[in-house]
Each structure stands twice: as C-alpha cells, then as structure tokens.
Amino acid sequence: MIEVKHVMKSFNGQQVLSDINHQFENGKVNLIIGQFGQGKSVLAKCIVGLYEVDEGQVLFDGRNFTDMERFERSQIREEIGMLFQGVA
User: What is the DSSP letter of 74?
Assistant: First the structure.
C-alpha cells in the first residue's frame, strides 16, 4: 500500500499540493484525476520521488520513503512503475 500523509509541495512560492492525504491500496485500481493544472502529475512525481515533498510523508507498506537515503529509495523504486501521459 502507498500512503501519502499531509503532503505539501510548492514551486517558486506557488502552492501546488496542500495537505494531501490518501491511501492507494494494493490490488485495486487507483486513479489520480482532476482538471488541468491541479497537481496530479506533481503528486505522482512526489510519490515516486522525482520531486521532494516540502512537508508530509510518502509511505510504501509503512516504510517512510521521504526519510530514506538514496540507496534505500532505489530499492523501493525497483517495485514501482510509472507511465507518463503522452501529449494529446
């Protein structure tokens, strides 16, 4: 299970994610949907560690990804897949 707790992210003073909380359960289809510019891709990139969260935690099966060293993160990334959307 992947869990995000109180995740916040901003760029150049622009708040993109504010206090995001959600559990993505194993064995279920999990979606991140919303309008253009609402932070869906930013959230996905925070989950996989392409962006560092400003505040909050990302947990993989209870393991705190946000506090891990590079080597530990690389081990978890072996369990992750991410497909980027092509330009429509």
Answer: H
